[in-house]
Design brief:
Length: about 450
C-alpha cells in the first residue's frame, strides 16, 4: 500500500514530471475472420475492429479524466496478418493494410499493429507474401505498423529472413523518400518477440492470447530523473545501491498507476485485462527523456564510458520495482533508448558521444535494441541485414528480446538531420561502416540455437 506521502509524490509526478499512461492497447483476435474471399475477409476485419474498439477512445478518455491521469495513445494490436491472411498474395495483403488503416481511422486510434510475421524457423507462404507487401503497405498507410520475428533463443537466427528484411527496409525507405523514409519507422525486426507488446511498432496479438485483451504501457522517465535529482541534492552519502532503491520505488508507483487505468478501462469495455508493460518510454519533449537520466547519474552523456553499467542498473531497478507492484507485468518492460524519440539521445548522436557501435553494445542490457536509428540513405541491403543479425545475436544468446528499427534516409548522409514528426521525433543520421561485399549475410541458412536452448 502507498503511504500518504507516496500518494502525494505520485500526484506530483503527474503534474510536474511528465508521468502518464503512454498507451492503452486493445488486442483483437482476427482468426475467426479468416476467409478465402478477400472482400469477405476485409468486411469481417472491419466489423470485428469496429465492434471491439468502437468505444476504446471514449472509455480511455473518460477513465483518464476520472483519475486525472492522461492516456496519451490508444492503439490496437491484431493477430498476425501473415497467419490470418495466409491465403492472399502480396498485392491483396496491401489491400488488407489499407482496410486496417481505414478501420483504425474510424475508431480514432493512433496506430494498429499486427501486420506481422513470425519466421524464426522459416517462412510459410503467408509469411513470404506479407514480407513482400510490407514496403508498399507501410508507405501507403498512416497508422499500420509491422513486425517480423526472425530469431529466437529456441530456434536460432533465420539469416534468409534477415537478408530479406534488409531489402524490405530499403524498399520501404525508397517508397517514403519524401518523408525521410518514414515507412521504416513503423517496422520492427525482432528476436524473441513477446506476444503481448502494447508499444508500437512491435505490437501484435499472439496466437496464445485471449480473444480480446487490454494491455497497458506506462512511461515515467521524467519521474525517475526527478527522483534521482532530489536524492542527489538531499542525501550526502548517496551511492549506486541507494539510487537503485529510489528507481525501484519510483517504478513501483508508475506501475500501480498503469494497472489502475488498465483495469478500469478493461472493466468498462468488458474485456479481459492483460499486462502492464512498465518500460521507460521517452518522448521528444524536454524533461521526458531516458537520456537525461544518465546525466543525473553523473555521466556527461549517454554513450560515454559507464553508459552500459548505468543502463544495466536502471533496467534492473525498473523491472524489480514493477514486478513488486504487479503480478501482470509483460511486454518489453525496462528502458527504451529510441534515438529519434528522445531529444537527449538524439543530441548525444549529434555531439559524437553515441555511435552505432556503442548503441549496439548497450542494447545487451536494455529492453529493446536499435530503436529509431537513422542511417545514411546509401546503406546497402547487406549492411542493414548485418546490423540486424548482430542485434538478433545479442537477443538469442542472452535469451532476451531485442529489435531493430532502422531507417536508411534516402538522399541523406551521416551528420544530416531527419525528421519523422510527432512522437517519432527527429534524429541525426549515424555513421555506419557499409560492407557491401558482406558474403557472410548472403550465405543464408540458419544460425543454430545456442546450447542454452536445451532447457526442457
Amino acid at each position: 500500500m502507498l503511504t500518504d506521502r507516496e500518494i502525494l509524490s505520485t500526484i506530483a509526478m503527474l503534474k510536474n514530471e511528465h508521468l502518464d499512461v503512454r498507451t492503452v492497447t486493445l488486442g483483437i483476435n482476427l482468426m475467426d475472420c479468416v476467409s478465402d474471399d478477400l472482400g469477405r475477409f476485409l468486411n469481417n476485419i472491419r466489423n470485428r475492429i469496429l465492434g471491439r474498439a468502437g468505444d476504446l477512445v471514449r472509455v480511455c478518455d473518460a477513465v483518464g479524466e476520472k483519475y486525472g491521469i492522461p492516456v496519451v495513445n490508444k492503439r490496437i494490436a491484431i493477430s498476425p496478418v501473415a497467419v490470418a491472411g495466409a491465403r492472399f498474395s502480396p498485392e491483396e495483403l496491401v489491400t488488407v493494410a489499407r482496410a486496417l488503416d481505414a478501420a483504425a481511422s474510424e475508431v480514432n486510434v493512433d496506430f494498429i499493429g499486427g501486420f506481422s510475421a513470425l519466421v524464426e524457423k522459416g517462412a510459410a507462404r503467408g509469411d513470404s507474401a506479407l514480407m513482400e507487401a510490407i514496403p508498399q503497405a507501410l508507405a501507403e498507410t498512416q497508422r499500420v505498423c509491422a513486425s517480423v520475428n526472425v530469431a529466437s533463443s529456441k530456434a536460432g537466427i533465420n539469416m534468409d529472413a534477415i537478408l530479406k528484411m534488409g531489402a524490405v527496409i530499403k524498399r520501404a525507405a525508397a517508397l517514403s523518400a519524401d518523408r525521410d523514409g518514414l515507412a521504416c519507422a513503423k517496422l520492427c525486426v525482432f528476436a524473441n518477440i513477446p506476444q503481448d507488446i502494447p508499444f508500437m511498432a512491435g505490437a501484435y496479438l499472439g496466437i496464445g492470447e485471449a480473444d480480446a485483451v487490454i494491455n497497458v504501457g506506462v512511461s515515467g522517465p521524467g519521474a525517475v530523473k526527478k527522483a534521482i535529482d532530489r536524492a542527489m541534492a538531499s542525501e550526502a552519502d548517496l551511492n549506486l545501491g541507494r539510487i537503485s532503491e529510489i528507481i525501484k520505488k519510483t517504478a513501483y508507483k508508475v506501475t500501480r498507476v498503469g494497472e489502475l487505468i488498465g483495469r478500469e478501462v478493461a472493466k468498462n469495455l468488458n474485456i479481459r485485462f492483460g499486462i502492464v508493460d512498465l518500460s521507460l518510454a521517452p518522448t521528444p519533449n524536454v524533461g521526458d527523456s531516458v537520456g537525461e537520466i544518465f546525466q543525473s547519474l553523473g555521466l556527461r552523456s549517454i554513450g560515454v564510458p559507464g553508459t552500459t553499467a548505468a543502463l544495466a542498473l536502471l533496467n534492473d531497478a525498473v523491472k524489480k520495482g514493477g514486478a513488486f507492484a504487479s503480478s501482470h507485468v509483460g511486454g518489453l518492460s525496462g528502458a527504451f533508448i529510441p534515438v529519434s524519440e528522445d531529444l537527449n539521445i538524439s543530441e548525444a548522436v549529434r555531439n559524437g558521444y553515441l555511435t552505432l557501435e556503442k548503441l549496439e553494445a548497450i542494447t545487451s542490457v536494455c529492453s529493446v535494441g536499435l530503436d529509431m536509428v537513422a542511417l545514411p540513405g546509401d546503406t546497402s541491403e547487406e549492411t542493414l541485414a548485418a546490423i540486424i543479425a548482430d542485434e538478433m545475436a545479442i537477443g538469442v544468446i542472452n535469451r532476451k528480446t531485442t529489435a531493430a528499427r532502422l531507417i536508411p534516409v534516402p538522399g541523406k548522409k551521416a551528420g544530416d538531420n531527419a525528421s519523422f514528426g510527432g512522437l517519432l521525433g527527429q534524429a541525426t543520421i549515424m555513421a555506419v561502416t557499409d560492407a557491401r561485399d558482406n558474403a557472410f549475410v548472403r550465405m543464408g541458412g540458419m544460425i543454430p540455437a545456442p546450447i542454452q536452448s536445451l532447457t526442457n
